[in-house]
Amino acid sequence: MVSDARCQTSGVSRRLGYHGPVESARPVDFQLAARSLILRATDHPAVAGFVRRHGLRLGASRFVAGETLDDCVKVLRSLQDRGFLTNTTLLGERVTDEADVRRTAEAYEQVLDRLDRERLRTYLSVKLSQLGLDVDEELAYRTLRGLVAQAAERGRFVRVDMEESWRVDATLRIYRRLRAEGYDNVGVVLQSYLYRSEEDLRQLLPLKPAVRIVKGAYLEPPTVAFPRKADVDRNYLRLVEMAFEGGARVAVATHDERIHAHVVDFTRRRGIPAEAFQFQMLYGVRPRLQADLVSRGYRVLVATPFGPDWYRYFMRRLAERPANVGFVLRNLFRA
Predict the structure, then answer these.
(1) Which residue range forms the structural domain that includes residue 222?
(2) 14, part of any domain
(3) Same domain, 93 and 228
(4) Does the annotation count 161 as an active-site position?
(5) Are 18 and 195 in contact (CB under 8 A)?
(6) Which residue, of 62, 135, 193, 265, has the fewest CB within 10 Å?
(7) Catalytic pick from 134, 161, 200, 233?
(8) What b/e readout covers 153-169, taking b as 16+ CB neighbours within 10 angstroms?
(9) What is the spatial distance between Cα 260 and Cα 284, in angstroms, rounded to a whole number?
(10) Tens digits of per-residue pLDDT, 7-59?
(11) How confident is the model over 224-239, as pLDDT tens digits?
């Protein structure tokens, strides 16, 4: 006999697009618990103050290519010389002042100029919350459109990152507007931990989008996101296969070797050449794996962010792999 509460939970899950079994009790997932704890601690004033003061020295520099564009250019040059593709991001998000949005846009214009001068084959990856989405959706659209237009003139690409679930609709609306205006040098991101992403991808496929598939790095409730890692991984593979079969330009953005092996097998069986897609990984995360994929003939892009506003990015990297906290603690004790 199934309880009324379990029936209600199952009904909610199915309305949200999740058709798997709903369990009344599960063993504790300690990695998930650690991830949630880190993300919840991110907004604690004492944690934020300590990490901002000492984070670069204690480990953030492992994941961030410096606080200045000069620092970042050196890293981008080194990666390019070793056969990697790259993108770069000026770190920052949740901008609520229009003047700050203008300054961010100007900074990205300077990045584009510098990439041209340095002859780096790097594209931009941007967050709409940094470009004005938290002020006004139209402001974010205009700001992004200006960057995409400038990038198009230079033969460069811009990827629009995906943020919290409540920003997804606005992000996809802005992406569709740009594609409708003829900009095909712009891409988007979908997160496999969100129930909605399969339907979002299905609706995007007629555009033959340039889509990056990620697992998701924000703290989301079980009403909108799969709570179990196994379900997130299954949905990831489903989205990747849908994207390939739908003719999308696919970026497989994960450090999960099991997913890499699945993608390699799937693309070989379907006759999809290695140069038709990318593996994408983060600067400072599993560099040996990145180099191994390059040596096997795959296109590997290293996401290489920079800037002084690195705090939230760093905390999400810790949350994605709580074992990284041990790396920070070891540096703390050494210091």
Answers:
(1) 65-309
(2) no
(3) yes
(4) yes
(5) yes
(6) 265
(7) 161
(8) eeebbbbbbbbbbebbe
(9) 18
(10) 433 343 443 444 444 444 455 555 666 667 677 767 777 766 766 676 666 66
(11) 999 999 999 999 999 9
